[in-house]
Structures are given as C-alpha cells and as structure tokens.
Amino acid sequence: MPITPEQRAEIDRQRSQEAATRRATVPALEAILYEPITVLDHGFVRVIDYMGDDSAVVQAARVSYGRGTKKVSEDSGLIKYLMRHRHSTPFEMCEIKFHVKLPIFVARQWIRHRTANVNEYSARYSILDREFYVPAPEHLGAQAVVNRQGRGDVLEGEEAASVLALLRSDAEAVYAHYEEMLNGREDGTVIDPSRQGLARELARMNLTLNYYTQWYWKIDLHNLLHFLSLRADPHAQYEIRVYAEAMLDVVKRWVPAVCEAFEEYRLGGAHLSRTGLSVVKRLLAGEPVTQEASGLSKREWRELMESLGRAE
Amino acid sequence: MPITPEQRAEIDRQRSQEAATRRATVPALEAILYEPITVLDHGFVRVIDYMGDDSAVVQAARVSYGRGTKKVSEDSGLIKYLMRHRHSTPFEMCEIKFHVKLPIFVARQWIRHRTANVNEYSARYSILDREFYVPAPEHLGAQAVVNRQGRGDVLEGEEAASVLALLRSDAEAVYAHYEEMLNGREDGTVIDPSRQGLARELARMNLTLNYYTQWYWKIDLHNLLHFLSLRADPHAQYEIRVYAEAMLDVVKRWVPAVCEAFEEYRLGGAHLSRTGLSVVKRLLAGEPVTQEASGLSKREWRELMESLGRAE
Amino acid sequence: MPITPEQRAEIDRQRSQEAATRRATVPALEAILYEPITVLDHGFVRVIDYMGDDSAVVQAARVSYGRGTKKVSEDSGLIKYLMRHRHSTPFEMCEIKFHVKLPIFVARQWIRHRTANVNEYSARYSILDREFYVPAPEHLGAQAVVNRQGRGDVLEGEEAASVLALLRSDAEAVYAHYEEMLNGREDGTVIDPSRQGLARELARMNLTLNYYTQWYWKIDLHNLLHFLSLRADPHAQYEIRVYAEAMLDVVKRWVPAVCEAFEEYRLGGAHLSRTGLSVVKRLLAGEPVTQEASGLSKREWRELMESLGRAE
Amino acid sequence: MPITPEQRAEIDRQRSQEAATRRATVPALEAILYEPITVLDHGFVRVIDYMGDDSAVVQAARVSYGRGTKKVSEDSGLIKYLMRHRHSTPFEMCEIKFHVKLPIFVARQWIRHRTANVNEYSARYSILDREFYVPAPEHLGAQAVVNRQGRGDVLEGEEAASVLALLRSDAEAVYAHYEEMLNGREDGTVIDPSRQGLARELARMNLTLNYYTQWYWKIDLHNLLHFLSLRADPHAQYEIRVYAEAMLDVVKRWVPAVCEAFEEYRLGGAHLSRTGLSVVKRLLAGEPVTQEASGLSKREWRELMESLGRAE
C-alpha cells in the first residue's frame, strides 16, 4: 500500500470538492483525479491537475476565437495531420501535473528530461520515509551479455534469494543508521536528548538509491509524448517503463484522439534508415537480399527483419 | 474594436458553457475567461485557460497529498518566503494560456522569451487581416538622445501629422498590393480569375511590421513573472509594456498572494550593486559622499539617488 | 554582394589572426571560419566559432579522461549507434556559432526553434540598412491548391513581372519614409535639422517583412540537426531551406562522421506509421493491397508509395 | 587523489597536443585546460573545452563583422552596461564544457539546473568505482534549529566519530554487496563463474548517495553565472558550493571583465524589497525606524541590517 490512512483521507477530502468552471473539462480524467495509480512496490502516479483536451489542440492549431472545433471527424483528421507532419506546437497547448512517488535511481533517469517543471520533496528539510524498492522476483534480471545496457534471463534459486536478501538488509541497515545519525525518527521524536544530530542534508547521503522520493511533475502534452516514446519503449529500464505505461493510460483518458494519432504515427510504426529503406525497396522488387549484401550490420538487419515480421 | 461580431458570438458561446470540476478553480479569473482585454488600437489579450491558484504553489512546495494549504496567513507567509529566496520551482506549478493579438514588431520582441509555448496564426496558410497599428498621438515619441534605445519628447505639430500620415498610407498601400499579388481578398474572393496568385508564404513579405498577428501563448507562472518583470518595466518599449500591464492585472485576479509577493520582492524593490551598497552604508554612517568619490558612474549615481528618493 | 568593403576588411583582419590551442580543432572548418556563405540575394551564413569535433561526441559518450577516441572505425560505429538509438546527449557536447543575415519573415520562422542562443541586431538602437529580399524569378511560386501551405507552379509573364515590380517599389517606398520619419539616414546624417525625428523603435514598424536583419545564433549539434531535419526538408519554405542547406554543408566539414550518421538515420530514411508498416508487410508477403483496402488516406498512400519507389 | 595514474597519463597526452586556430583563445584558460581541480575528497572539476572570451560578448552585442572590440575600457564599459541592465543574450554567446566528478546527492541538486547539456557516466552500462564521499570533520554540521534547511554547529567528540564510522562502514558494506550481486568487480573480473550476476541497472540501487558519479556538463556563460549566483551563495549546501567556487575561479581566468561585472552587479550587491527600500529611505532621512514599525519580519529586518552593516 503506497499511501497511509492520513494521506488517503486528504485525497478523499480533495476529491470531494467540486466547482463550476468554463474551462475545457474531461470527465474521464476527473473520475481519477488525485487517485494514486500504484506502480512498483511503494510508488504511484497521481494526476493533480490538467489543462486542455483534444479540442484544445484543434483550437490552438486554428488560433480560434471560440472552441475551435468542427465535426469530430474533421478534428481528429487535423490532429492526425499535425502528428504526422510533426507540427508539435498545438500539442504543447495541453498541460498535465502529476504527483509521483518513485525510487531515487528512477528519478535520476527521469529528471534528464529537461522540459518539465519539477518540485521534489526536500531531504535537506525533511526526513525521508522508510520505504525502499525491492524488485519482484520475476523482474530480477541478470546482466545481459550482448546488450551491455540491459537485462537477460531472470535470476533464480539461491542467487535470486541472496540478491533479494542483500537488497533488503542493506536498505534496512542504512536507514537505521540514517536515523541514528539524525538522532531522530520519521515521526519527529528524538532518540538521544544529549546529542545534536547530524544535518539532514548530510545524513541523507547514507541512504541507498532504491529509497523512494516524491515530486510534483508538470509537463506539456508534446513533451510528455516524447518522454513516453522513449520510456514506454522496450529498451527502457523496466522500473521507469512501468511509470511511463501508467501515464500512457492516463493520456488515453485525457486526450483519446491525440493518443490514437500518437500510437499510429509514433509508437506503432517503424523508422527505416536510408539503407534499410533501400533493402525494403529491393525486396518489394522481388530481388533476393542477404544481410551481407544489404549494407546493414547484423544487428540492424535482425531488427529490420523483426520489424517487417520476417524474423527467421 | 478589435473583434468582429462573429468572433464576439464565438466567445459568448464558449463563455456560456460550464462544467463541474475537481480542479483548483479561481472565480475571479473565471469571470473574465475568454473575454478580450483591449490593448493598443486593435490588439487584445484573452485568458483561454489556467491551471492552479495560490494554493497550488503551496501544495507543490509541500509536495502534498491533499490541497496542501494551512491557514491563509501561513500560506501567504510561505509564498513570500519562496519568492524572497528565489525558490522558483513551486511557481512553475501554475500555468496560464493566453490568446494575444499584437503587432508583428511587438511579437518579435515577445518571442525572445523562450520558455513559453506558442502557436501563431500562419500567414503561409491564411490571408492576414487588414489591421495595422498606428500609435496614438501621445505615444509618438521622438528618438531619445541620451538613451539611444528609447523615446524622448512626443512629436508635435506638422512633424507628428506627417509621421501618422506616412504610417497609415504605407500600411494601406502595402496591403492593397498584398491582395493584388495574392489575387485574392480576406473574404476569400478572387480578384482576377485569369491569374494564379502568388503563394501566401511569399506575398506576406510585402506587409509592414505594424500589421497585427495573433497567437496562443502558454507559460508557467514563474516564467510569466520573469517576463513581466522585464516587460512591465519603464525601460521596456511602450507597445509591449501595455500588454505586460494587462497581463499583470490578470495575474492579480488569478493568484493575488503570489502577485503581492512579486510586487514586494521583485517589482517594487531595488537592486544595489556592490559599490552602490557601500555608498548606502557610508551615507547611513553620516559620511558625505559625492558621485566623484562614490566609485559609481554619473548614470549609476543618478539612478541610485533616484531609487533612494534623493534626486537633486 | 551581401557585404561591404569595410566588412570584408574586418573579416580579413579576423581571419589573419591565429593562436595555439589545446582544444579540439577542425582544419576543414578553420578554412572557412568567418567567411560569409552567400544565401538568397543579400543574405549570408558565417561560422564565427565552434566547440568540439566528431571525437568530442565519442569522448562525452565515454565520459573520458582523455581524447576518448579509439580506432576511427570504432568511433564512427559508436556515433552511428548513438544516432540510431536516439542517445542525443553526446551530440549536445558540440556547439557552433553563426552570424546570419536573413529576411525578417525568415527570421520569424527560424526563431521558433527555442533551443538556441540568439543576439539580434537592434532596430531600437540602430538604423536598419536599405536591403530587402526579392525572389529570383524562378522562385516566384504561385499559391499551391492542394497543399494550402505551399507553392505550386512558378508565376510567369506579366503576372510575375507585376509581382516583382510591386515588391521592389513598396520596399523602396517604405524605406524612404522610414528615413523621412527618422529624420536621418543609414550613414548617420540628419535630413532636416529643425525636426526631432521619430524614435527608431517606432519608425522600424514601417518596414516590410522582406527587409534583412542579422543575428548571432549559437546552438548545440543535436539541436542543430533537429533544426536541419525540419528546415532542410522539401516541405520547408524555400527561403529558409537554403539557409538550412548552407548549414548542412558546414556540418559536413565540421563533423563528417556525425553528418554521415545523420543522413543515414534521419534525413535519408523513412518513417512508417503503424498502418503503413502493415501495408509493407502485406506487400512483402505477396498480398495485393490497394489504397482503399490499406487503411491509409489517399495522401498517405501516395506518400508511402513514393517513399517505396512505387509511384504509379 | 581523485585520479589514477592511467587517467593522469591520458590527461597529459591530451594536454601535450596543440593546434593552430583562428578562434578566440584565452591563454590563461589554456594553461589549466584538462587539469583536474580537486574538490571534496575524491571529486574534481576539469575544463574540457570553451568557446569565446570577454570580446565574444562584445562582438555579439554589436553583431559585429569582425572582432567587434574597441578600446578595452569601452568594451568593459559595455559589459558592465549589459550586466547591469540584464541584457543576458550576449553572455549566452560564450560556452564552457566541464568534466565533473561529484557525489550522487550533489549531482541530484546540480541537475535541477535545466539549461545545460549533460552526459553522465552510465551505471546501467558500467560498474561504478569504489569511491564515496565522507565529510571532513570540520564540515560535519549538526542540523540547524532555526533554518530547518541548513547546518548549525559542527558535531564533536563521540557523536562525530560515530557518524564518520557509520558513513564509512555502510558505504563499504553496500559496495561489497554491490560487487557480490554483480558477481563482478571494478577491474572486470568475475567472482563466481557458476553465477550469472544481477543486471548492473539493478545492482546500482544498492549504493548509497555519497558514491561518486561523473559527467560532462556544458553550459553557456549566462546560465553558468546564474548557477553560480545560486550555488556559490552561503545558503547553498557546502558540498555543492565548493564546486561552484572552483568554477567561479575558472570563470575569472576565462572572462575576467565579465567576472568583475558579475561580482559588482550580482554577487556583491543586495536586493532590497519594496518595504526594505522604504526603510532605507527613512533611515537616510534621519528618521528612527524599529523592526516593529518597519513592516519587515524579524528575519527580514535582521538580514537587512546585516547587509547594511548595522548588525546590532
């Protein structure tokens, strides 16, 4: 359970408040507003606020004086046109704000996307909670051999057990020492009144990178889709991909027409290199082509054949 | 009148629609939502959408699970603290979207602020309207002599009349030729069916820089305040300053506590240089200080004395 | 001739100075440093400074303590890998600074790329030169009918002559009035000593959008390539495309291995949509596919067939 | 010693190479190019490359065809003018690239500055070194009581010894387990051939936040100065401030005139709030003002009196 009863009550209180607005409103997103969507063992994604909807993209593209929309089919045709031709500015006219709880090592990857606004929980100011990530056994991947930057098979048996035990015991040990150095606990109590306690900004350095942090993260739709195209991708590390997938579901609720265009023109397609394109042309002309004669490396050849559904 | 009856009707239609939302809502801003605020002779600023309110700043600063606010006085104390100590990230958690109609030469200054999202009316795709800016007589400033980058006295008499006549007649002449080259008019009619008409993307180059363009412009509160601190400043050109002032009024409606802190810690104060600070210290110590002995240039000295209310 | 003899002398003086440096240096780029490359009738692109070379990409990707390079083939393999997998950060480690002279309507498109540093010639402070763009007859495109945002056939005969005459005479007229309002000329002389002259920041609004402006423009290699992929594209307006093409030639001199990877994986390839990819798979499987049965619009079908070299 | 003999040799090799260039060159910066400047116990800052010098600021501000400089006094006057009036774009025309080795918790603060280019050492791809930060005894600050976000007195005696012992033993323990989980060591050897080893991207989560990471970090001068104004400030955490101070020394070598203007108009001055300014005016008018009657909070009053050298 990633949230406490007190937090649950705060969320419920906020969900219970309603006001009238003239702004573009999306009932399907209102339905889940503020609700934590569980990710990993203690993490979550919550939508805190949003601006705009599918029509807001159309309205901006037409620089309209009113709602800007015409028939639904024309609007969705325009959205597809914009996505296809990389006219990104109308998609920047929608904005969304998330509250995210995530392990620090995931936060370190995530923050590399610079086009968002971020407000992180301060471990200089506050004491971090005793919450750390331990992978589920089925995600305990071994180091991949070919792709030095990925995972291979799942560890099993004694090796898996030993890894999980180390992760848990180290996380617990460093937290106990964190509190000891602080001379204080999460709940604000003091351990030893005769001591001063190390500054929080220093003590935090004793925590491991699987400890959870939290932030408010706000981004426009165009940059969110760019983030999702990189992080909902199979090459992304599993622990960030699950956050991206949760947010992709949110995008579907929020701007379904944009999401459909995104899946058609970005996520679901394939990018051919110049040489890859010439291979496809030769194959279509009925010419036999081998990897050796293709001009592609073995890896590129294999990936091209896979994307064409021709894996041998 | 910057808008047509058709545009007025579109705006009224949009204003008449209301929905229920769980999001942070600001009645004082809802009251003017979509309404054009007139600026210059044909320009306007309209608020199209917004995200957040004063409390959203507090909520993000506290990385809260609920509304995040405490007593009003505590919240406004926190906002002042954040503004004073340049903790800018919580202010980035509010966002606003404007529809702006403005002369092209103003747009060229405005766009230099890179941290906004912009979607401009396309003169490659559409025909621009026959609307251009002519300064009111009281803003027809002569070239300043000391400050090469500003205005001095207002032009008068025959010189003023001549300038206004030239601006008007040139703007009208280039527009007539614009339509002639396009072989088409604003209303979509064709002038001479035997001609093809020049591409819009080329014909537009015949228009003068006082023609109006329009855009949707979206920005977070922190960057908006930065924009306003530069453009609502007396050193800014009058024609962009009036837009900044109109937006500052919007900010007051939207986030009054933030606006108050902004006026206290940014707009209304003074920045002293290292040397200027030492002058103030010496003056406070009762020491007589002259410009010559101050280490400040004449201009810096004059500006310091002015900001200290000691203009001789 | 886009530059004056005085400017030529300044450039020659700067080109004649040499110093020793330990920094990465590219002789092929040094050879053209500071030299204007003519674009359009009065415009140019000049390389003013640069940071890094092909090896700097490799060095950053390896977070190296030294030069970071291994064998040339390994380095270029790594560069290809980075480009293919959209690892963009190492390409951001190279930077280039241009001095560009360009028509204002081109500058207005160009500036929409926000990830660059720009310092523009100030028409608030200085008087603009009497230089404006007039298209060569072969670029005088008519408005395209299908693509509302482009050019069709070239205008001919009397219509072309009339357009060119209007562009020239209007540009000349507005400039004469610009000087008259300023009560001053390019060379600094005063026209009528009994007049004050309108402020420069106002008078400039009387110029047409084909007047030339200038700026220093500095950008990292990753963002430059993104700019070039959009602006060296056939869909870009001719008048900005020629600048992009000139800069692409500069990139070839500067970082040849990066440029080759860019042409292989970005410029020269094709992006297939999800539906487009399924069409290719069906064709490769020997299945006959028609536009009607493809799920693609007519336009998408035509573009796919063209990119596959199967234009009917 | 933050670097190994192999790294030292690589650096020396790179330092020994020289080439001729027409670019702006700064001998005082060339002198230390590539040299590590030690920071903290195992960290460093190295200048890898730079673009521009003091004159490059002037050249861009004048949009010059040549070097753009006039007399040294005029140039430095222009630089002061630009700094004073917040004309930031000419300062963006200089760029610098650093290689930085720093503890992860420092990197997490640093990366919040979004206007830089960053390429970090990948712990998905490589094994991190066994290097972690332990504060020197004189920097072992206790938690501050008034300022919840800072340090108070230095810990002493047994409490200090205990903290240092915990930091060291935990860092060593987690590293030993990191290697055990990886089934591999820094030097590439395998621990137990019968095991697979956990993926690097997972094992790294067991390291504490005081482990060192490294990155290439590239930024323009304007944004660097902004970074330094926040991070070379007494309110910044000591562990990032020392990096900022090392970089400020680099800036002094690189662009001495800019650095002087920065110290005069940014670092060395004071910003008065609207109320603070009115207090100063009243004091200068000889009026007695107390905190209670000032309109300032106690803390603001104390800070104002301190900056005016009137601390009671």
Automatic annotation (TrEMBL), chains A, B, C, D:
Q: Which residues bind dUMP?
A: Q109, W110, I111, R112, E120, Y121, S122, A123, R124, R204, R231
What cofactor does this chain's UniProt record say it requires? FAD
Q: What is this protein identified as?
A: Flavin-dependent thymidylate synthase
Q: Where does FAD bind?
A: T89, R112, H113, R114, E120, D220, L221, H222, H226
Keywords in alphabetical order, please: FAD, Flavoprotein, Methyltransferase, NADP, Nucleotide biosynthesis, Transferase
The protein's role, per its UniProt record: Catalyzes the reductive methylation of 2'-deoxyuridine-5'-monophosphate (dUMP) to 2'-deoxythymidine-5'-monophosphate (dTMP) while utilizing 5,10-methylenetetrahydrofolate (mTHF) as the methyl donor, and NADPH and FADH(2) as the reductant.
The record's free-text note on cofactor binding? Binds 4 FAD per tetramer. Each FAD binding site is formed by three monomers.
Q: Does the keyword Ribonucleoprotein apply?
A: no
CDD domains noted in UniProt: ThyX
SUPFAM superfamilies, A to Z: Thymidylate synthase-complementing protein Thy1 (SSF69796)
Give the organism the record lists. Answer: Azospirillum oleiclasticum
- Assembly: Homotetramer.
